[in-house]
Amino acid sequence: MSPASAASPAPGTSPARSAAASPAPGARTALRTALRAGLQRARIELRQQLTSAQDVWGTLFFPVLSLIVMYVLRDSRVPGTGFSLGTRSVPGVLGMNVVLGALTVLAMTLTMDREDGTLLRAKATPHGVPGYLTGRLLSRAATTVLGVLVLLLPAGFLFDGLELGGAQSWFTLAWVLALGLLAVLPWGAVAGASFGSAQSLGVLTVPVMLLMVISGVFYPVGAFPGWLQWIAQVFPVYWLGLGLRSALLPYGLGAAELGGSWRHLETAGVLAGWALAGLVVAPFVLRRMARRESGASVAARREKALQRPV
Amino acid sequence: MDAEVTAEDGEFTPESPYGPPGRPAPVIETRGLRMRYGDTDVLRDVDLRVYEGEVVALLGPNGAGKTTTVEILEGFRRRSGGEVRVLGADPDGAGEAWRARLGVVLQSWRDHGKWRVRELLDHLGRFYAPYSTPDRRRPYPAGELLSLVGLADDADTVVARLSGGRRRRLDVAVGLVGRPELLFLDEPTVGFDPQARREFHAVVRELAARGDTTVLLTTHDLDEAEKLCDRTLILAGGAIVADGSTAELAARVSGTAEVRYTRAGRRHTRRVEDATGHVRELFARYGAEIGDLEVRRVRLEDVYMSIVRDFESGQRTYAPADLTEVPV
Q: Which domains are assigned to chain B?
């Protein structure tokens, strides 16, 4: 070793800490460090997303458009009640936003990160992939929650009958959002790992949109045929919407839902089920994705991207 | 996630003595390395060794398998056969503690375009902190690293706004942020203008002068290998066909000459030991049929260029005889 390299100790690292570090640190210590670095990554990515006009526009365009449509429809009534159909749909729009953010956008981000080599960079770094995923998942979750809160503000002024005053509303909103994100984010990651390119992900948009329609985001499921109601109740989108409605709408409106109540227990059960299944499946799929990553595969994807007509 | 495998776990002990006497075990060692895609052997039988502190060029035409070789050594790609040791471990499943000792600069990166230069170096550096030792402080402080690669003025620049050459310097900085014992540079100067290339060479030389980082760089530019490296390995036809300093390689082929001529309207090129004798015989046999006679001493570059030409036009699939004579 030359004197030049040895004579320049890092200003940031204290001698005591460096001396304490053994040549082969415990894998757990290193992993913990990587996960902490993932938190830093989440903060930086969040800042990037919030300061990019394009990202903000992309996140808010659909929900704002939907809120405008709902505002126009505010005089229509929920079938069987005197309640405004527009107000009733506000939680649905928020739920749609959560699904778009946690599933579609996350999947798109992962495929893009594979295309430009971000994932490969993580793979070249010790414990880089868990660090990278921590950052991506947390920043996505944070953006999604912020998106919901930002939409609630104008909605509170535009629509009559939203229950935004009570602690109960916010408590329900918090656990439904948290459980909803846990139920959807892993599947967004699985989709992102499974599709070859951001373009081919377009295929995913169709079933997701279809799912939102049958899950009663815009129109109560009660009006649909029975078999369609059953399909809707298998997927988390319906339950996310139901949970958000139970948080934001008057308690009595639960009677207009399937089963005649807000069904909190079932909501928690189904969302937790999807979360558990996702947390079991996602690590396998993500590990396979990381294992397959190499410079050649990044180059091949870029080649393909360049050949695509713009 | 990954099982930690330390260098001591392996049961593979390199036969000694390898290479010059008195040298420690090589940092990189492959024996009979093979890589097969479908029906094609990209690497047939690669034997190479790189020792601590060396700067070694892996030279070869496009498609010779340089990148494949490097990706196998980096642990990014699973080989089809043969034995490989890098920093004392098999790269296939060597774990994160091993990974922390490597620096990787791939052919081209476009990642983290929205990040600021210093922010990215600081972030990636954090992953290496647990692997710091008293004589190898990890990570490399971002400020020092930026000065080393000549990016001090761009610390707050957004990565996507860097020019090609500056982006490449950042890639090298990222490769160095863990203060690696072994650095891989894959085609580091492709697409550089001469100025950027010169500046990049200065960075690598600076690194080599410090002596604590072994460097394996791939290139298809003989000139680059000659300027930067202690030793050059030529990869062709899926095997290492030449190994030595540029001077040694040149000495191997300096005895030969190339004779070009036309006979009956067809062009001929012969590589011979005794040019004078060959020409005398040509005239004795064909007399006035011979035209456009040209005799040139063969330089290493000529040999290398002819390999490149032949491989690229698919005329040759195995190493040329005049290079296989070089003891590997």
A: 7-249 (3.40.50.300), 254-319 (no CATH)
Interface of B with A in 137-156 (CB under 8 A): 137, 139-141, 144
What pTM was computed for the model? 0.81
State the DSSP code for A249.
Answer: S
- Considering CB atoms only, which of B95, B110, B129 is closest to A33? B129
Query: What tens-digit pLDDT sequence spans chain B (328 residues)?
Result: 444 444 443 334 444 334 444 557 899 999 999 999 888 889 999 999 999 999 999 998 877 889 899 999 999 999 999 999 999 999 998 889 999 999 999 877 789 999 999 999 999 999 999 999 998 999 999 999 999 888 999 999 999 999 888 888 899 999 999 999 999 999 888 777 788 788 888 888 888 888 889 999 998 888 888 888 989 998 988 888 888 887 777 666 666 788 889 988 888 888 787 888 889 998 899 888 888 898 887 666 776 776 666 666 665 555 555 554 444 3
Q: Are B106 and A295 a contacting pair at CB < 8 A? A: yes
The CA distance from A227 to A267, in Å, is: 19
Per-residue tokens: A260 = 């005649």
Considering only CB atoms, A25 lies closest to which of B74, B95, B131, namely: B131
Q: HSE of A51 in the Cβ direction (CA atoms, 13 Å)? A: 8
Range of the domain at A156: 30-307
CA A128 to CA B179: how far, in whole Å? 16
Between residues 242 and 281 of chain A, which touch chain B (CB distance below 8 Å)? none
Q: Is residue A278 part of a domain?
A: yes
Residue labelled with tokens 């930086």: A44
Q: Measure the CA dihedral B200/B201/B203/B209, to 10°.
A: 170
Smallest CA-to-CA distance from B124 within A52, A123, A181, A189 is with A123
Residue A188 lies in a domain: yes
In chain A, what is the straight-line distance between the N-terminal and C-terminal CA atoms, in Å?
51
Q: How many domains does chain A have?
A: 1
Interchain pair A27, B132: CB under 8 A: no
**Does any domain span residue A147?**
yes
Tokens of B158: 């957004």
Residue A24 lies in a domain: no
ipTM over 0.85? The verdict is no
What's the rounded Cα separation, in Å, for the pair B117 and B147?
12
Alpha-carbon distance B101 to nearest alpha carbon in chain A (angstroms) = 9
Phi-psi sector, B63: left (phi>0), alpha (psi -120 to 50), beta? left
* Residue B139: closest CA among B170, B111, B103, B171: B103
E strand or H helix at B32? strand B28-37
**Calculated CA dihedral for residues A110, A124, B209, B137, nearest 10 degrees:** 110
